[in-house]
Structure formats: structure tokens, C-alpha cells
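Hey, resending since the last one bounced:
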Amino acid sequence: MNMSLSESLFQRAKVAHMASRYADVVRSVKQMIENDIMLPVEVIDMMQIAYKALVVKCQNQIRNIEKCSEDSREMARLKNSKIFDLKQKIRNLCVSVFTIISDKVLPFQQSTDIRMVCYKINGDFNNLLSRNVGYMGWSLRINETIEAYNTALKLSKRISDFNKDKEMLILNYSSYKWHILKDKTGAINIAQEGLSDALDLKKRINSKQLSLLNIFIKELQRKLTIWGNFQMSKDMRYLTSGESGLKRANVDQQNTTP
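The C-alpha cells again:
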């Protein structure tokens, strides 16, 4: 029995993904798009993993180049040129993901689960792009990242069953709020709400899903413990400085009282 083009490309992508041949996964996805084949959710998942792996590969190459010494002006020029090329490659990879999601997936998908995943992917890759390619426009990328993550978060609230992408969204968005936006309260609120939902979900899912959900729960608890301790330490420093200020003010007032 002959395999259809769609099945053939899907199997190629799957085999490449299992072998960690991420460039081949991307090639298969692009061939599916060129032949107007709708991307199933499994391919979308493989696609985001493959593109992220290629971005990380570029990041590692940039770090290695930055460690190299600059013995001459020519070496410094070559070093900067190579870093620029790698950042441009990161940009192109991220833009490819945006194009695939906006042009080839979202217009044809009504499923809440898949749309949530797509907006999460947009948020993740906008975040990657803003952190790796500063000259592309930092403020613009922040706006687009927030918009994508917020849309994904709204869609996730409609999903009552276990969904690993929903849990990853909570982890990624809360971390983005904490580390990039410096919105400590926003990060803690997202993580706390996500933890509450996960603990409620824990009571009504099967054992296979439970082991994966427990990983997310532990990670959220770990983050909240660290962030809570940081906030408590910050509040204590504020209170201590405030008490010291009051003491100084009282002393000054006593010294100036006739």
C-alpha cells in the first residue's frame, strides 16, 4: 500500500525528531507547508522543539566565539561578523516560526488546545528573539511577547483536562514576568494560580498523566519558594531601613527639641 505524501513527510519528521536531527524536522515541516498539508498537533510540537534546538545551537556558538581572544583588529572584525551572522540566523529561525503559526496554522484551527499552543509558541519565540537579537527592537518584542502570552493564558483557562503545553505556558510566562519584565507580583500570581489549578487537576487524572503533572507542580512550588523568600527578604530590608529611618528621625527630633 502506497503511503500518501502527507503520511510520508510526517514519518520523516517523526524519525528525524527521534534521532535529534532537527534541521531535517524543519525541512519536512517546510515541505508539508509547500504542499498545503495541514500541520497536525504532533508536527507542531516537533516543529517548536526543532526550532528551539537550532536557536540554542546558535546561542552556544555565539558563547564559544565570545570566549575567543582578539589578537588583531582583523580577528575582532571576523569575530563580530560571525556573531552578527549567527544572530541573523536566530532572527530568521524565529521569523519562520511566526510565519508558519500565523499563516499556516492559526487560520485553519478552531481547537482551543491548538490555538493556545500556537500563541504560547509565539510568546516563547518572541522572548527568544528579544533576548538574542537586541538590535531588532527590544520594546516591540516585549509588546508582542506579552500579547502572545496573554492570549495563550486566556485560552488555557478554557482547558480543564491535563495539557503539558498549558503547564509549560505557566512556567514560561511566570519566569518571563519575573526575570525579564521584573514584574514580581505578576509572576507570583500566575504561578500561584497555575499551582492551584494543577493541584485541583491532580485529583482527577490518570496515573500516566500524574507523573508528568507532579513534575510541573514541584517546579512551580520551587519557583514560588524562591520568589517568596526573595520578596520576604526584600520586605524585611524595607522594614529594617524604615525602622532605622524612624529611629534616626526620633533622635534628630530629640536633639533639636529646646
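The chain has two domains: 1-153, 160-258.

Sorry for the duplicate.
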